[in-house]
Amino acid sequence: MEYLKIEATCDFEKNLLKKVVNTNKKIVLPEGDCDRIINATKICATNNICEVILLVEDINDDRIQELKNMSNVTIIDYKNHELKPVLASALYVERKAKGITEEDAKKLIENPVYFAAMMVKLGLADGYACGATTTTAMSLKPALQIIKSKSGVVSSYFIMEKEGKTFGFGDCGLIENPTEDELVAIAENTANAYNVLCGNNPIVAMLSYSTMGSAKSESVTKVANAVAKLKSKNLSYVVDGEMQLDAAVCEEVAKLKAPKSEVKGNANVLIFPNLESGNIGYKIMQRFGGYKAYGPLCAGFNKPVNDISRGANVQEIVYIVAITALQCVEEDK
Known about the structure:
By secondary structure, the protein is α/β, with parallel strands linked by helices.
């Protein structure tokens, strides 16, 4: 059937599929009542991208009956499943120091996103992806409370692709006005994710409206200080800034504006000074530049969690699930 086809339209997608097919990672999709999620589940299962755990409210829904015969799909009626009291009890233990009561935990686990987060927390699944019908805040809040971050900072990023050329953009969806230390974490998170997903050595440019001190302001100083902190870490990849976009990605401009920088106009990871510029930047690339945008993806959680754009089509959801599965593979290394 047409909906079972997966369309790999570029090298990024082809390489991603090669890395995840038959790895059998268990990804929870808590929005099992959404047509797009149901069809994405069929594609993922048919193409062995991962094992899907689909959370549904109505186990007798006609749309999911075909899925019951697929060996790599598990369908859970999250409101009536035997796991429900187990997850509620574990959620209470996890959050009681924050003031949650046992009754609160029982109510929260009625939310499929909390159900999914607790499955990941307890090792019953490897990761989850959510957002087709849920706001980013609600998709990620349970993960922030339960799965938590590795280093204290969770950030988001996009992979941008066009004609074989890929970029990592961060942070375009989560941290509104990052501090110096948060910019450092965003850069590290995005660079590491870019290396995993794209297989390229990161060349990181910390963006600003200033290049190497050409302007003076509090925002410029913040980026410059973040660069200094990154360089003190002796990272295995190039990081430099602050710099304007043209100096980051154009060799001719880089020779004029930043002749001593190791970036040399070849940046493939772009770190924006705030959420406003990052969100506008990726949308300009997508809408005017013709780049495909994969994300918002998350970096920094203890276990893989990703947000699905509410406007995502079925194929886009499939690739977010595939990316989540690849992150799970990398977690095991």
